[in-house]
C-alpha cells in the first residue's frame, strides 16, 4: 500500500505545486517576464492569512476573498507603473528589475516579520482522514481542493471572458492581437495582476500546511520554475501537468533514492526537459 | 538557491545596526569584549534566542559583581552580537569581522556543530580562545586546534544511555528507523545512534538524510510508516522536528518509542507541538534538576535556575545553560590566568578541572569537554521528565507515542 | 467640396522616415466611401508603409491622417482597429492553435465593445460562411492550406466590422482558380459598402475590381486616377508596368 500512499501524497502535493506555479506561468507565458518576485508574493499571502487568523480570527478561506483583489491591485500597479517601462527591453533587463524588486520586498518582510518560522495552526486542528490504509491530512485536502478551484476559475476566465481571451491572444501572438483591437499594455497589467493574485492566494493556502517565513520564498520560486519547465508555459493544464509530474518524481525519488536525493532527481529531470523538450509536457499545445 | 543575495544589503545593514546597538563604554580599557555570532534570524532563530538568554544572564551577573577580576582590576563584560541569518558561510565572515574589526578579546562559537567547525578555522588563525556553547560532534574538534573548546560532550554520550534505557524498558522494540537532517550535528548523532542500535541488537530498517530547508516530508514518512518500526529516531533542529512531528500526525503514524534530537528540551517545542509532544523521548547535556555545587559565579545549579527564572520567567533548558556556562568558564579562566593575554587564558581553560553549575568541567586534549554525564528525558504531561542518570531521576519511561 | 462628404480617409502631406530612409515622401491622397482603391507600385515603393502608417503600426513622421472626420495621426494600433480600420497581411499569421472559428471570433470580440465570447463565436460563423470556410470552422488554423488561410484572414478582417479595409496582397501564392474566387469575394465586399484599399501586383485583378488606382514609387505618389488613365501614364509605365505591358494594352485598346 506504500505505492498507493505515495501516489496519493503526490497527487495532493502536485495540485499545490500547480497552484504555486500557475501565476508565475501566466506571467512568463503572456508577458515573457520571469517574475522573480513571485516567491515573495506567495510568502506575503501566507503572512496575510496568518495575520488575519492571529489577530482578527478570520479563517483562511475568507482570507482568500480579500487576498485576491488586494494582490491583483498591487500587481496591476506594479506592472503599469514600473515593469511596463522595460517590457520591450531584453529579458535580462526585466529579470534584473524583478530581482531588485524582490530584494526590496523580501528584506522588508524579514525586517518587519523577522525570519523566524511562523505556523498557522487551525484550532481546532483538522486531523486526517483514512481510507483503505491510505491517510490524507484534511488541511492538505482542503488546500488542494481550493487550489483546484482557483485553477479552475482561471481556466474559465481565460476560456470564456473577454479579458481572458485577450490574454490568451496576446500570449499566442502579440502583434496580431494588437491589430484586432487589444490594448496590450492594459492586458499585460491585468495578466500580471492576475499572476500576483494567484500567488497571493497560493500563499494563503500554503500557510495552512507549511511554515511561513521570508526565507521560504526562494523555495516556492524554485518549485514554480521547475513546474513551468516541466509542464509548459502559460496554460492551466501545463501547470497541473508540471506540478503533478514534479510531485510524483519527488515522491518516488524519496522512496527509492532517499529524501536527500529527491530534489537532485527533480533537477536532473529539469535539465533533461530543457535539453530534450524545452516546451514542456504540454508546451504550446496546452492553450485554452 | 538565491541565498547569496541576502549578503550585500541586509548583512552590512544589520552589522551596522548591531555595532550601533552595543553601547560604547566610557573607557575602552575597562571592558572585555566577547564576540557572539548567532543565527538571530532564519530557521535557527529560536536556537539563537536561547543562547542569547544564557549569555546575557551571565554578563548581567558578572557585571553586577563589578565585573571580571583580572589580576586585581575589575573589567566589565560586553557581548558583541552579530546575525549570520542561519547561513554558515556568513557565520565565518562575521567571526572574522569581529576579530579583525570589532576588537573582541574572546569568542563564543556560532550555533551548532556545523557553523562552529567552520568558524573555528578563523579563530584558530588569529589565536583567539573560543568556547563553542552548542557543538557536540567530535568532528568539530578533530583539526588539532588549540584555541577551541566546547561545553558539549561527544554525541555517543547521549545515544549510549538512550539505547540502554530503551533496551531495558521496552523489550518489544526490535526495529529502528532513523531520519537525519543533512547537517553536521544531526547527521553525526544519527550515525552514533545507528552504531549504538546495531551494537545493542536492534535492526536498523531505515536510515536516510533529508535536505536542509525541506518543507515536505510526506513521502519519507509514508515510507517509514510502511516499515512499521517500533522506534522512530529523528534528528534536526527545532523547526524541522516540529514540522516532521506535524506531518507524522497528518499520516496517523504511531510507534511505541519516538525520540527526537534536538528540540524536545525547549519549552517552545512542547508548547507548539501540544498534545503530540507527549511521550517523546530525547537526550541533552544538562537538566535543571541537576544538583551540582559549582565554583563558578552561579555556584549551585539550583541558584542558576533561580536567577534564570527571575530574569526570564521560565525554567532554563540545556542550550541556555550552556551559553551561560561558557561565559562563566571564560570568567574562571581569565581570573585564574590573572590576565587578558589570549595565550594565558587559553592555557587556563585547557587546565580547568573544576565543578560548576553545568557539571564537572574538564576539557580533553582536543578541547571538547569529556566530564559530563548527559541526562536522558521524556516529555510527560507537557514537561520534560529526567529518566537518567539515577542521581537526578524524576520518573519512569512510558511507552507509546500517538 | 461635395466629394468631401463622401471622403472617408484623407492623407495630407504624410511622410514616414526610418532613420535616413524616406519611405513615404509628402503623400497626399483621398479615399471616398465605397471606393475600391488599388495601390500599386514596385517593391519597396512604400505601399505597406502607407498602410502601416494609417493603422498606427508606424506613426507618421510628418503630415496628418484623417479618418471618418477624425485626426488619427497619433492614434495607437488597437484604437485604429476599434475605430473601424481593418487590414489583412501579406504573410498570413492566424493564431495557429486556435480553430478557424475561434480566430474569427477573437477578431470580433476585441474590436467591438460590448461583445461577449459567446456572441462573438455566433457571429464568426456567418463570416466564415461568407468566405466559404464554414466546413473548416473547428479545424485548427495551423492545418489550413494557404488559400484557406487567406480567406480566414479576410473573415477576421470582416469580423472587425470595418469601415475601411486594407487588403495587402491577398492573391500572393494563389493559383488562378483561387484568385478568381478571391476576386469574387472582394466584389461582394464592395457591394456591402465597405471601402477597400488593396495593394496588388496582379494587374488583371486590379483592373477588374478597382474603381481607382494610386501609384507609389520611391515613397512618392506619381499617379492617381481612373484605372484606364493610370495604366497609360508614361511615368507609371517607366516606373512599374514596363514597355511590354503598355504595348500589349495599347494593342487591346
Question: Can you offer a commentary on this structure?
Answer:
The complex is a heterotrimer of chains A (288), B (402) and C (253). Helix content of chain A is 75%, strand content 3%. Chain A has helices at residues 2-31, 38-56, 60-81, 91-113, 138-160, 162-172, 174-180, 184-209, 217-231, 236-257, 259-276; strands at 128-131, 134-137. Chain A contains 11 helices and 2 strands, in the order H-H-H-H-E-E-H-H-H-H-H-H-H. The mean pLDDT of chain A is 88. In chain A, helix 5 (138-160) runs antiparallel to helix 8. With 288 residues, chain A is an all-alpha fold. In chain B, helix 4 links the parallel strand 4 and strand 5 (130-132). Chain B has helices at residues 7-21, 45-64, 88-100, 112-125, 156-169, 184-199, 218-227, 238-250, 267-273, 301-312, 318-337, 342-350; strands at residues 31-38, 68-70, 73-83, 106-108, 130-132, 148-150, 175-181, 203-210, 231-235, 257-261, 280-283, 353-356, 359-362, 376-380, 383-388. Chain B has 2 domains: 3-153 and 289-362, Rossmann fold; 156-284 and 375-392, Rossmann fold (3-Layer(aba) Sandwich), CATH 3.40.50.2300. With 253 residues, chain C is of the alpha/beta class. Chain C folds into 2 domains: 2-84 and 165-252, Rossmann fold, CATH 3.40.50; 94-161, no CATH class. Chain C has 11 helices and 10 strands. Chain C is globular and about 55 Å long. The model of chain C has no long low-confidence stretch (mean pLDDT 87). Chains in contact: A-B, A-C. Chains A and C meet through helix 6 and helix 7 of A and helix 3 and helix 4 of C.
Write the layout of secondary structure elements.
The complex is a heterotrimer of chains A (288), B (402) and C (253).
Chain A: H1 2-31, H2 38-56, H3 60-81, H4 91-113, E1 128-131, E2 134-137, H5 138-160, H6 162-172, H7 174-180, H8 184-209, H9 217-231, H10 236-257, H11 259-276
Antiparallel strand pairs in A: 1-2
Helix pairs in contact in A: 1-5, 1-8, 1-9, 1-10, 2-3, 2-8, 2-9, 3-8, 5-6, 5-8, 6-7, 6-8, 9-10, 10-11
Chain B: H1 7-21, E1 31-38, H2 45-64, E2 68-70, E3 73-83, H3 88-100, E4 106-108, H4 112-125, E5 130-132, E6 148-150, H5 156-169, E7 175-181, H6 184-199, E8 203-210, H7 218-227, E9 231-235, H8 238-250, E10 257-261, H9 267-273, E11 280-283, H10 301-312, H11 318-337, H12 342-350, E12 353-356, E13 359-362, E14 376-380, E15 383-388
Parallel strand pairs in B: 1-3, 1-4, 4-5, 5-6, 7-8, 7-9, 9-10, 10-11
Antiparallel strand pairs in B: 2-3, 11-14, 12-13, 14-15
Chain C: H1 2-5, E1 7-18, E2 21-32, E3 36-40, H2 47-55, E4 62-67, E5 70-71, H3 77-83, E6 85-87, H4 100-111, H5 117-131, H6 146-159, E7 164-168, H7 176-191, E8 195-199, H8 203-209, E9 212-217, E10 220-225, H9 227-232, H10 234-241, H11 243-252
Helix pairs in contact in C: 4-5, 4-6, 5-6
Amino acid at each position: 500500500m506504500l505505492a498507493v500512499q505515495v501516489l496519493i501524497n503526490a497527487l495532493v502535493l502536485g495540485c499545490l505545486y500547480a497552484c504555486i506555479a500557475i501565476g508565475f506561468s501566466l506571467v512568463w507565458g503572456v508577458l515573457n517576464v520571469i517574475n522573480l518576485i513571485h516567491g515573495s508574493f506567495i510568502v506575503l499571502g501566507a503572512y496575510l492569512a496568518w495575520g488575519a487568523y492571529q489577530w482578527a480570527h478570520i479563517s483562511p478561506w475568507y482570507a482568500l476573498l480579500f487576498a485576491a483583489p488586494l494582490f491583483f491591485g498591487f500587481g496591476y500597479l506594479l506592472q503599469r507603473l514600473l515593469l511596463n517601462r522595460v517590457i520591450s527591453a531584453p529579458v535580462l533587463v526585466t529579470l534584473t528589475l524583478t530581482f531588485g524588486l524582490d530584494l526590496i520586498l523580501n528584506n522588508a518582510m524579514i525586517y518587519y516579520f523577522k525570519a523566524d518560522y511562523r505556523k498557522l495552526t487551525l484550532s481546532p486542528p483538522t486531523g486526517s482522514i483514512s481510507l483503505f490504509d491510505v491517510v490524507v491530512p484534511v488541511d492538505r485536502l482542503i488546500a488542494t481542493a481550493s487550489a483546484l478551484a482557483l485553477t479552475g476559475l482561471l481556466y474559465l476566465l481565460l476560456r470564456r471572458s473577454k479579458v481572458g481571451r485577450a490574454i490568451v491572444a496576446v500570449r499566442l501572438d502579440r502583434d496580431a492581437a494588437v491589430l484586432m483591437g487589444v490594448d496590450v499594455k492594459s492586458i499585460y497589467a491585468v495578466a500580471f495582476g492576475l499572476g500576483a493574485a494567484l500567488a497571493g492566494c497560493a500563499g494563503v493556502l500554503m500557510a495552512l500546511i507549511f511554515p511561513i517565513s521570508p526565507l521560504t520564498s526562494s523555495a516556492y520560486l524554485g518549485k514554480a520554475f521547475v513546474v513551468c519547465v516541466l509542464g509548459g508555459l502559460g496554460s492551466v493544464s501545463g501547470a497541473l501537468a508540471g506540478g503533478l509530474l514534479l510531485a510524483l518524481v519527488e515522491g518516488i525519488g524519496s522512496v527509492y533514492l532517499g529524501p536527500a536525493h529527491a530534489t537532485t532527481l527533480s533537477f536532473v529531470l529539469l535539465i533533461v526537459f530543457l535539453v530534450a523538450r524545452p516546451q514542456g509536457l504540454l508546451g504550446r499545445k496546452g492553450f485554452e | 538557491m538565491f541565498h547569496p543575495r541576502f549578503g550585500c544589503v541586509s548583512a552590512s545593514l544589520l552589522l551596522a545596526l548591531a555595532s550601533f546597538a552595543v553601547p560604547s563604554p566610557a573607557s575602552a580599557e575597562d571592558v572585555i569584549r566577547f564576540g557572539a555570532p548567532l543565527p538571530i534570524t532564519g530557521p535557527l532563530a529560536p536556537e539563537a534566542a536561547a543562547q542569547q538568554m544564557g549569555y546575557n544572564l551571565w554578563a548581567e551577573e558578572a557585571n553586577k559583581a563589578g565585573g571580571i577580576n583580572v589580576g586585581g582590576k575589575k573589567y566589565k563584560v560586553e557581548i558583541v552580537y552579530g546575525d549570520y541569518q542561519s547561513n554558515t558561510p556568513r557565520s565565518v565572515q562575521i567571526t572574522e569581522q569581529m576579530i579583525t574589526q570589532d576588537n573582541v578579546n574572546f569568542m563564543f562559537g556560532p550555533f551548532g556543530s556545523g557553523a562552529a567547525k567552520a568558524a573555528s578555522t578563523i579563530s584558530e588563525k588569529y589565536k583567539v580562545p573560543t568556547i563553542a556553547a552548542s557543538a557536540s560532534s567530535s568532528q568539530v574538534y578533530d583539526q588539532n586546534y588549540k584555541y577551541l573548546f566546547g561545553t558539549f560532550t561527544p554525541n555517543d554520550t547521549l545515544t549510549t544511555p538512550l539505547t540502554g534505557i530503551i533496551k531495558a524498558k521496552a523489550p518489544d522494540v526490535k526495529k529502528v528507523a532513523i531520519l537525519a537532517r543533512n547537517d553536521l550535528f544531526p547527521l553525526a548523532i544519527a550515525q552514533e545512534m545507528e552504531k549504538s542500535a546495531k551494537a545493542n541488537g536492534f535492526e536498523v530498517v531505515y536510515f536516510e538524510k533529508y535536505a536542509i530547508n525541506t518543507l515536505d516530508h510526506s513521502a519519507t514518512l509514508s515510507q517509514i510508516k510502511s516499515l512499521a518500526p517500533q522506534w522512530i529516531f529523528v534528528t534536526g533542529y527545532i523547526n524541522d522536528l516540529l514540522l516532521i512531528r506535524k506531518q507524522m500526525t497528518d499520516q496517523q503514524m504511531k510507534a511505541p518509542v519516538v525520540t527526537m534530537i534536538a528540540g524536545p528540551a525547549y519549552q517552545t517545542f512542547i508548547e507548539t507541538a501540544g498534545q503530540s509532544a507527549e511521550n517523546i523521548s530525547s537526550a541533552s547535556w544538562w537538566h535543571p534538576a541537576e544538583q551540582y555545587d559549582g565554583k563558578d559565579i552561579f555556584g549551585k545549579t539550583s541558584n542558576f535556575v533561580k536567577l534564570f527564572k527571575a530574569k526570564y520567567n521560565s525554567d532554563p533548558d540545556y542550550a541556555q545553560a550552556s551559553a551561560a556556562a561558557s561565559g562563566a568558564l571564560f570568567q574562571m579562566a581569565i581570573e585564574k590566568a590573572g590576565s587578558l593575554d589570549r595565550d594565558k587564558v587559553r592555557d587556563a581553560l585547557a587546565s580547568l578541572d573544576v565543578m560548576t553549575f553545568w557539571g564537572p568541567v574538564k576539557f580533553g586534549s582536543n578541547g571538547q569537554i569529556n566530564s559530563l554525564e548527559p541526562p536522558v528525558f521524556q516529555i510527560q504531561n507537557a514537561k520534560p521528565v529526567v529518566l537518567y542518570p539515577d542521581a537526578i531521576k524524576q520518573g519512569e519511561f512510558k511507552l507509546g507515542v500517538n | 467640396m461635395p466629394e468631401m462628404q463622401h471622403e472617408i480617409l484623407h492623407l495630407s502631406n504624410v511622410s514616414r522616415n526610418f532613420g535616413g530612409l524616406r519611405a513615404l515622401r509628402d503623400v497626399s491622397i483621398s479615399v471616398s466611401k465605397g471606393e475600391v482603391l488599388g495601390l500599386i507600385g514596385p517593391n519597396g515603393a512604400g505601399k505597406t508603409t502607407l498602410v502601416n502608417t494609417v493603422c498606427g503600426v508606424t506613426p507618421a513622421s510628418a503630415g496628418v491622417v484623417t479618418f471618418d472626420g477624425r485626426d488619427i495621426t497619433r492614434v495607437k494600433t488597437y484604437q485604429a482597429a476599434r475605430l473601424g480600420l481593418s487590414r489583412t497581411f501579406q504573410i498570413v499569421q492566424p493564431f495557429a492553435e486556435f480553430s478557424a472559428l475561434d480566430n474569427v471570433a477573437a477578431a470580433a470580440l476585441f474590436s467591438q465593445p460590448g461583445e461577449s465570447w459567446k456572441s462573438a463565436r455566433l457571429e464568426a460563423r456567418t463570416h466564415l460562411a461568407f468566405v466559404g470556410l464554414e466546413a473548416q470552422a473547428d479545424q485548427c488554423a495551423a492545418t489550413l492550406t494557404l488559400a484557406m488561410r487567406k480567406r480566414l484572414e479576410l473573415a477576421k478582417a470582416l469580423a472587425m466590422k470595418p469601415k475601411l479595409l486594407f487588403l495587402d496582397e491577398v492573391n500572393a501564392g494563389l493559383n488562378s482558380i483561387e484568385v478568381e474566387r478571391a476576386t469574387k469575394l472582394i466584389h461582394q465586399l464592395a457591394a456591402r459598402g465597405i471601402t477597400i484599399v488593396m495593394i496588388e501586383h496582379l494587374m488583371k485583378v486590379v483592373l477588374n475590381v478597382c474603381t481607382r488606382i494610386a501609384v507609389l514609387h520611391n515613397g512618392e505618389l506619381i499617379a492617381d486616377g481612373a484605372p484606364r488613365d493610370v495604366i497609360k501614364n508614361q511615368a507609371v509605365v517607366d516606373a512599374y508596368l514596363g514597355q511590354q505591358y503598355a504595348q500589349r494594352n495599347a494593342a487591346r485598346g
